């Protein structure tokens, strides 16, 4: 594995030296200013898509984003065109964008057809649901905005970071089972299934996803949660607050009989862990791994 990391780093350094494109200060400091071929007005749909476009230095070309796009912080000041799975064409068209870069989970299909019919260049990109797909997803976004070479270099950089996190996780003596939850409505809960970004982050952080029966998010009952016996619960900070706080979540009928709730093990997970895998995933997983180690003592 170390040899693979070294190889990845050498490839990355070679590419960036050739491009002369690396800027100091981390991924979101951006690359060299994008070539003029990059569209001047873009809408990005999907958290990882937006994060990648920004990391490639084209953030100043984004005029609006969807509501899952929260990173980097500057994105939160941009106009919103709605939730990625329930977009309305009118809102997107009104931005004056000439190109839309969208996660393949965006929709509905009728809205995407209307966007195309309005003459907007719509580019769909396949999102990553596994760590080994992140590099390809970054390159796909780079291709969609005509920044292929910088995207290849960024993808190698991110892969090297993810590999280091995975190696650290595999060396840990304890790999607790984790159930990642989101709240729906007043009392409903949905758990992250095996093919979700949250499950990938749990595994990358050294945990085991407790809810592998479903591929996607699915409702969770008290009986199912107790049977899966998660040792740790994870939920985004805003969801914990919406449900009344930490103690209220641990006392929910669906969760209170789980080992995690009885031991008070609830982690407020970075919402980026649920919204897609991209340039920030290594940092998100590293922070979650530290929280896991803390709650497991």
Automatic annotation (TrEMBL):
SUPFAM superfamilies: Helical backbone' metal receptor (SSF53807)
Highest taxon of source: Bacteria
Residues annotated as domain Fe/B12 periplasmic-binding: 41-297
InterPro entries given in the database record: ABC_Transporter_SBP (IPR050902), ABC_transptr_periplasmic_BD (IPR002491), TAT_signal (IPR006311)
Transmembrane segments: 12-32
Keyword Membrane on entry: yes
UniProtKB keywords: Membrane, Transmembrane, Transmembrane helix
The name this protein goes by in its record: Hemin-binding periplasmic protein HmuT
Organism listed in the record: Tistrella bauzanensis
